User: Which sequence fits this backbone?
C-alpha cells in the first residue's frame, strides 16, 4: 500500500534534507512536487490543495527548534498534516452499547462486504471475547446467504438459519430476537449490495436501519476503485448514518488515493482496513501509523518530537526553579499561559499547575476558556517589561492604556493582576513550606 507515494515523497523530502539552509523557495518547490505526488496517488484535488496550503502555512510559521534542521521541521509538518488528513485519532468500533449490539454492513456488490462481515465477527470473537451472530439479508444474490453460512462454519461463528423467501427487514428482526434469546453480544447484519447505488438499494437499507437500530453502520468500499470509492461513500452517507468505513483490498492498492481522501471528503472515519482474502487480514486504521508508513521517515519525525519535548521541559524546569524561589512575575504567568495553550488548553491542565488547582472553582465560574488564555497573554504583552516584573507599579492611567492596547476592559486588567497576585502569594507560601511543601503542601 502507498508504495508509489512513499517513493515519491521520500525523494522530494530526502532532497530537502541534503541542503544546509532552507529557503522559502526550496519549500515551495518541494511542495509543488508533493502536490504532484499526491495527485498521482489519486488523492482528490480539493484535498490535495488544502493539504499543500496547510503545510505551507505551518512550515513557514513554525519556529525551527534547536538541534534539528529546517528540512527536518518541514518533514515533521508534512507528517502532522498527513495524520490530520487521515483523521487524527484512531476511531474504534463501538463495543460498549447495551447488547445485543447491532452492526449493519452496507456497500456495493463485490466490495468485500460478506468477507469483511466474517473478518470482523472473527476478530470480535477471538480478540474481544464476544458472542457473535451473523445474518445475511441478501435475498437477491442466490448464493449470498449460503456464502455467509460457509464462512460461519469456517470460523466457528453462529449464523442465523436461512428461511427461504423471508424479506430483509424480517430477517433483521428475527436476527435481533434470536440474539436476545441466545445472549449474543453482537449481531452482524450483512445487507444486500448492488452494482451501483440505486433507489431500491437505499430504500431497503433505510428500512433495515429503522428496524434494527444499529450501533455501527459500516460502509465497505473497495480501495482499488480510488475516487469512485469516495463518491460511493458520499452517496451512502447522504442516505444512511454511516458510522465508519471499512476499506478493503488495501493489499493491492499501490496508490492509496481512497484512503487518503476519504476522511476529508466524507467526514467519515475509516475504522478498518481489509488487507487480504484471508479471514484474519483485517487491521485497525491508525492515522499516525499510516502516515509513518507513507512517509517512511519515522526517525526524523521522532527526532523533532523529542526536540520539542526537551524545550518544553527546559521551560518548565526554569519556571519551577523560579517558583521555588517564591518569585513569580507576570512574564512567568505569560509563559505558563502559553504552555497551557500548547499543551491542550485550560481544561486538560487545570489542577496540574501549582496554585491553579486551588483556584479552579473560581476560574470555572469566571468561564475561563482558551480564548481567555489568549486575551490574558495579550494584556501582559501590553505592559512594559518593568511592569511585568513589578506589577504593583501599574497606576490607574496605565491600566487604561493596557486595556486599550489589548482590546480589554480595565476590570479585566484588574482581574488578571489579582489572579497573578494570588498565584505569587501562593508561590511564596510554597517557598516557606520548603521542598516538602511543593510535593504535598495541600496545593490542590
Ligand atoms: P460482497 O459482494 O461485497 O459481499 O464481496 P465479497 O465479500 O464476496 O468479496 C468479493 C471478493 O473480494 C472475494 O473474492 C473476497 O475474497 C475478496 N476480498 C474481500 N476483501 C478483500 C481484501 O481486503 N483483499 C483482497 N485481496 N481481497 C478481498
Assistant:
Amino acid at each position: 500500500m502507498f508504495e508509489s507515494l512513499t517513493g515519491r515523497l521520500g525523494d522530494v523530502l530526502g532532497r530537502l534534507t541534503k541542503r544546509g539552509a532552507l529557503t522559502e523557495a526550496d519549500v515551495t518547490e518541494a511542495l509543488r512536487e508533493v502536490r504532484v505526488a499526491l495527485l498521482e496517488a489519486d488523492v482528490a484535488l480539493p484535498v490535495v490543495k488544502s493539504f499543500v496550503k496547510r503545510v505551507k502555512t505551518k512550515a513557514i510559521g513554525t519556529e525551527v527548534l534547536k538541534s534539528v534542521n529546517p528540512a527536518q521541521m518541514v518533514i515533521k509538518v508534512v507528517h502532522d498534516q498527513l495524520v490530520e488528513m487521515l483523521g487524527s485519532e484512531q476511531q474504534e468500533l463501538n463495543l460498549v452499547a447495551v447488547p445485543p449490539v447491532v452492526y449493519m454492513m452496507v456497500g456495493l456488490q463485490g466490495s468485500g462486504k460478506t468477507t469483511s462481515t466474517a473478518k470482523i465477527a472473527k476478530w470480535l470473537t477471538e480478540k474481544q471475547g464476544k458472542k457473535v451472530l451473523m445474518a445475511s439479508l441478501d435475498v437477491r444474490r442466490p448464493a449470498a446467504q449460503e456464502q455467509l453460512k460457509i464462512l460461519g462454519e469456517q470460523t466457528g461463528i453462529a449464523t442465523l438459519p436461512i428461511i427461504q423467501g423471508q424479506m430483509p427487514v424480517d430477517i433483521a428482526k428475527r436476527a435481533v430476537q434470536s440474539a436476545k434469546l441466545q445472549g449474543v453480544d453482537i449481531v452482524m447484519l450483512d445487507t444486500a449490495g448492488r452494482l451501483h447505488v440505486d433507489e431500491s438499494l437505499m430504500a431497503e437499507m433505510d428500512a433495515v436501519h429503522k428496524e434494527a437500530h444499529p450501533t455501527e453502520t459500516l460502509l465497505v468500499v473497495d480501495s482499488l476503485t480510488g475516487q469512485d470509492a469516495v463518491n460511493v461513500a458520499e452517496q451512502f452517507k447522504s442516505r444512511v448514518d454511516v458510522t465508519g468505513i471499512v476499506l478493503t483490498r488495501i493489499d493491492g492498492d499501490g496508490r492509496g488515493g481512497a484512503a487518503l481522501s476519504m476522511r476529508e471528503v466524507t467526514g467519515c472515519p475509516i475504522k478498518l482496513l481489509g488487507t487480504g482474502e484471508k479471514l484474519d487480514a483485517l487491521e485497525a486504521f491508525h492515522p499516525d501509523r499510516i502516515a509513518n508508513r507513507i512517509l517512511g521517515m519515522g526517525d526524523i519525525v521522532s527526532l523533532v518530537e523529542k526536540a520539542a519535548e526537551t524545550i518544553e521541559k527546559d521551560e518548565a524546569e526554569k519556571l519551577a526553579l523560579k517558583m521555588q524561589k517564591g518569585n513569580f512575575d507576570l512574564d512567568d504567568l505569560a509563559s505558563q499561559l502559553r504552555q497551557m495553550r500548547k499543551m491542550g488548553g485550560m481544561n486538560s491542565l487545570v489542577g496540574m499547575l501549582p496554585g491553579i488547582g486551588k483556584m479552579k472553582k473560581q476560574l470555572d465560574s469566571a468561564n475561563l476558556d482558551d480564548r481567555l488564555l489568549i486575551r490574558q497573554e495579550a494584556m501582559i504583552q501590553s505592559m512594559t517589561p518593568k511592569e511585568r516584573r513589578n506589577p504593583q507599579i501599574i497606576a490607574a492611567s496605565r491600566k487604561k492604556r493596557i486595556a486599550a492596547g489589548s482590546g480589554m476592559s480595565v476590570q479585566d486588567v484588574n482581574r488578571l493582576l489579582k489572579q497573578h497576585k494570588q498565584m505569587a502569594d501562593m508561590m511564596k507560601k510554597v517557598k516557606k513550606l520548603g521542598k516538602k511543601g511543593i510535593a504535598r503542601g495541600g496545593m490542590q
In short: Strands lie at 101-107, 132-136, 158-159, 186-190, 216-222, 244-248, 270-274, 282-284. Residues 348-359, 437-444 have pLDDT under 50 and may be disordered.
